[in-house]
Design goal:
- This protein has 199 residues and is of the alpha+beta class.
- The protein has two domains: 3-92, no CATH class; 108-183, no CATH class.
- 18% of the residues lie in helices and 40% in strands.
- It is built from three helices and eight strands.
- The strands form two sheets. The chain has a five-stranded antiparallel β-sheet with strand order 1-2-5-4-3, with no helix packed on it. It has a three-stranded antiparallel β-sheet with strand order 6-7-8, covered by helices on one side.
- Strand 4 (62-68) and strand 5 form a beta hairpin.
- The longest helix is centred in the last third of the chain and has 14 residues, at 157-170.
- The two termini are 56 Å apart.
Length: 199
Amino acid sequence: MPFFSVHGFLDELPSAPRLRSGELPEKAELELVFLDLKKLEIAGIPDQEGGELEIHKLAELQTSFSYKSKSLTFSGTCERAVIGGLQVLAKHDPDHVPPRGPRLFGHRNVFNSCLLLLQELGYSLKALGHSAHADYVPSLRWQATMPDGTDLTADTPIELLGLAALHRYHEPKIPEPYWWRIEGPPLLDELVEELKTQE
């Protein structure tokens, strides 16, 4: 099926464009497709200023079209002219304030919640260290075990909960080397490099 398609921008935006939060409509892009071409003539090259397009339905299976700008003209006839696509191009709204969600950072006042969650998940917990240092929490280590022999140890309850998340993700049955690995891109290096570019 011979066809000819053109892309252009509309003078006006749709009345209710669907955009993501924080976006403003900039312009609407339209694609027209002329199907079952019977005749087509083109001269020149596209320009940024645009021109004028006329479409006329001559009969049930005959439509004529013509376009003229300073540097491009085309015209022809086809059986059908249809809209191939319509999308609203957006730009960032500088006045948009993203919603503030929950915030949390590593601190000693989060330790007990982490331990309670670990206990609820079925881990047996123990604080490790010398009894003389029991009142100095940063000197202690934390252990979570399971009846199947799982043994997780970390410097803080927050880290211990992270190890438990890896354990629950993989559910290892035997102590294979590096059972905790998740295959993927080097995200650690990528984030560090991204930080360097902000300096």
